[in-house]
């Protein structure tokens, strides 16, 4: 799969020519998980597809989630049955098409009384029924003694028991990337750092896309019979290109995560904690790190790097320190933070966490379809529905949807080559990152250089930030936010992408500025 799915967006002249050479059946705006899923599904059904992403793939919300492929027990409490049902069954599908991107992690909920335990178990039984959860994944009840043994740092005073149920953890950016690569393998033409700036229609749609890459002034005109706007938090802006008078439909909500070293807060499972304002937050194990998240507050802007404030960190640390009383987390423990904006459909009256996570699709005056409001967990099903609708509108013969069974790149079962030159840490890391493609990465080396080469040659990385934040997650899960990797990684990228030394330094500075800005309000 990987040879055909290699993303080679560096040759901008060729990209422009390919984009302008044909009238596509479908142009998808936005290379987050929503656009990625749509492009993959449509390409697999035989449609001629173009996908245009303004920055790097997954540079919006799809690299800032809690990285959970979950059925969303909390949506059951809110009565959002369709969301629960779909997300719960989609978990199993994702695990089968990309096992390396869906790692099972038990979630632990401590209960304080027999009644609480009973209610929770009833809810979980409904959840398991709705999601057609198999026997092996049904919830368990742990005694306090077992809870203590499994999570020695967790406070157990006053606990009645613990309810434990499995969900999945993913790498959101790499899931998006794998989905886009699969679309590419099926013939989709894919361009990153190409922002759509104009939308018009005269029979077919015509889109103007302009480069957002330093030192590149590519401008392309893309023709398509149908356009789907999957621009996440920027969906309203795209709608306004179609109709400047269009009132906003999104209510944006910001959520942050904070990463600490596992030696400061060690969890073996995902621990669910209740905040004073009755929300659930999570402590999630991530190798040498533990991450905590998240918050949910309305936010006015669709920023790529929304601010993180001291009060956000306090909010997460206060609850965590209650659950893990010997930990005493403070600002000095912050390894890194990330923050993202949920593209919810609704109004900013009421509370952000009460807005439904069900996706909505609407048609604009020119006929552009826009989609927003859904979850990463259900991206595949969401894509299937909107591609069905697109095929109806286009009135064309198309193949049936196969996204639930065809593996994503890295999801095939293979025999691993002799990987003895890899140390244990790299082997674990690479298995998670590359799945069955690990053999291919191994041919490029055994460390950071191989990761960077693979990121550029196969995974479409065009800026240092693309490698640091989204291909490798070093920005979040590495000592000091991965800033020590910037110099060596930039040198490999400079060689592969013909950067001058000034450009290389600019790329390093750009990442350092992102890192610094993310910490500016944390004291
Ligand atoms: C804090 C937080 C935690 C979350 N946790 C979870 C979770 O654990 N599990 C879960 O299932 N969901 C979770 N979600 C929700 C999930 O992350 C989002 O639903 C999903 O990532 C949205 O993807 P998207 O593709 O619609 O948007 P994005 O990922 O934002 O993609 C939109 C893309 O459009 C591009 N774009 C914008 N303008 C243009 C233009 N003019 N031309 C071309 N491209 C353009 C952007 O650059 C961007 O890459 C979470 C969200 C947040 C904020």
From TrEMBL:
One of its GO terms (molecular function) is glycerol-3-phosphate dehydrogenase (quinone) activity. Pfam families: DAO, DAO_C. The keyword DNA repair does not apply. Its cofactor is FAD. The keyword Oxidoreductase applies. Keywords: FAD, Flavoprotein, Glycerol metabolism, Oxidoreductase. It catalyses: a quinone + sn-glycerol 3-phosphate = dihydroxyacetone phosphate + a quinol. It comes from the Bacteria. One of its GO terms (cellular component) is glycerol-3-phosphate dehydrogenase (FAD) complex. GO terms for biological process: glycerol metabolic process; glycerol-3-phosphate catabolic process. Its EC number is 1.1.5.3. Transmembrane segments: none annotated. Belongs to the FAD-dependent glycerol-3-phosphate dehydrogenase family. This is Glycerol-3-phosphate dehydrogenase. The lineage of its organism: Bacteria, Pseudomonadati, Pseudomonadota, Gammaproteobacteria, Cellvibrionales.
